[in-house]
Design a protein that fits this description.
single chain, nine-stranded mixed β-sheet, about 30% helix
């Protein structure tokens, strides 16, 4: 079962109604956050809400609720889902610019706020990745925002899945290694753990941020897709994958999967989750 909190009311997903002219639907004018749920607690909610505010600022959409109101909405929604006997596994918060015209201009209508909670399916213990020919635009007007304009990710992920992989990896416009469709990427280089710097245009992932606080990581804007071939180990991070080792790059097995750097990062992250659900 999927339940939705829509502008103050909890309903089943198929009963939720958003206007056909909502700008999030017509032009993808919105932002979102997805986080895992442990029991009835969204993990790292404070960090996700902080990034939501940053994304809203990038798009110029007003922040519709304060942190306490978002937390109350999440608590209400997750309690309702738990009451049905369904164990919530993920929570998504979406904020759009609200009803708008059939074009890029906006009106003064208030934003639309949607929280959706549902069970989650487990990720495989290791993931296959492929490099794709398309690029991230690190100079985009919405670079760094977690925007609902996700069509390029849909196309890239479909490409990866046709090749038997579960994630697609982008470079940016100058050829620097950037990110996956919904993940950040880490790799081994010269015995050290490295990851693309945020200036490459990659999303400032919450799990990425926590891993960088827990273990030593060198952030670089000089990595390329070719560096993945030379890496002894690679792993992905995301809010629902946590730390996920990569087993294959473009159908070639990664030499160490999972390798010692990956194991250390995964253990440190798991220990954090066990002691603090809102780090």
């Amino acid at each position: 079962m999927i339940l939705v909190w829509l502008n103050g009311r909890v309903v089943e997903a198929d009963e939720a109604r958003v206007g056909a002219l909502d700008h999030g639907l017509t032009v993808g004018d919105g932002v979102f956050e997805t986080m895992k749920v442990v029991g009835e607690t969204p993990f790292a909610l404070a960090r996700h809400l902080a990034r939501l505010r940053r994304s809203l600022a990038v798009l110029g959409i007003q922040v519709p609720m304060d942190e306490c109101a978002f937390r109350a909405a999440a608590d209400e929604l997750l309690a309702c889902l738990a009451a049905t006997g369904t164990e919530p596994g993920r929570l998504r918060i979406t904020v759009t610019a609200g009803p708008g015209p059939l074009g890029s201009g906006r009106t003064s209508n208030p934003p639309t706020v949607i929280l959706a909670a549902a069970p989650s399916s487990p990720w495989p213990p290791m993931e296959r990745i492929v490099r794709v020919p398309w690029v991230r635009n690190e100079r985009s007007a919405i670079a760094g925002a977690k925007a609902t304009s996700y069509a390029e990710n849909v196309v890239a992920l479909a490409h990866a899945r046709r090749r038997g992989a579960g994630e697609a990896i982008f470079a940016n416009t100058v050829g620097a290694l950037c990110e996956g469709t919904g993940t950040n990427i880490f790799l081994e280089r010269d015995g050290r753990l490295v990851s693309p710097a945020l200036v490459t245009g990659c999303l400032a992932g919450v799990t990425r941020e926590l891993v960088c606080e827990l273990v030593e990581v060198q952030e670089s804007e000089l990595l390329t897709l070719d560096d993945l071939e030379a890496a002894d180990e690679i792993f992905l991070t995301s809010s629902t994958r946590d730390v996920q080792p990569v087993s294959h790059l473009d159908d070639v097995r990664v030499r160490s999967a999972p390798g010692p750097l990956t194991v250390t990062a995964a253990a440190a992250f798991a220990a954090l989750c066990a002691r603090d659900l809102d780090p």
